[in-house]
Specification:
The N and C termini lie far apart (about 40 Å). The chain is α/β, with parallel strands linked by helices. Helices cover about 45% and strands about 15% of the residues. The protein has one domain: Rossmann fold (3-Layer(aba) Sandwich), CATH 3.40.50.450. The longest helix is centred in the last third of the chain and has 16 residues. Helix 3 links the parallel strand 3 and strand 4.
Length: about 200
Amino acid sequence: MISKFKIAVSGAAVTDCCAPGATLLAEEVGREIVRQGCILITGATTGIAHYAARGTKKEGGVSIGFSPAVSEAEHSRSYKLPTDVFDVIVYTGFDYTGRDLLMTRAADGVIIICGRIGTLHEFTVAFEDQKPIGVLEGSGGTADKIWELSTGPHRGIKKIVFNKDPKKLVASLIKLIEKEKRPNKDLRTKNIKIR
């Protein structure tokens, strides 16, 4: 199966703030991303991202990690991050905030599972970039605050889908991505001359 889209999973590296079962749900989200023909992108970290990547690997899919480190040695030794479940790791050298920006912008859509302040940062980047976002409801942490955060400032949730079911969440996010990727009908019908 040819992969259609790159979906980033953002979530807590330390899962003590997550709801019970959030790590199992993250693994299932990773599996669903593969089952529905997509590639997983994460921050190449522990916790939720690692569980999602583990699910992707168990399903035979492709997992790409964006590391905050400048090299594999720094990734493993200084940041103490895993390498076992990633097919490709992009060593950004931009620490966590720069890594978050690159990872989020490389994705076609982002799924938020549980999370802490780093997840909030990745959500904010995706939200401001108007990327399609999926939120795994009931997973705890940042994910359970997204509704209030996105409706409170009156910005709206047009490109955010919420669901407790990993399969339905991934499917809904893919529909949003497909809608975003559709060519503009006005541009196709105009006669444009290029010199």
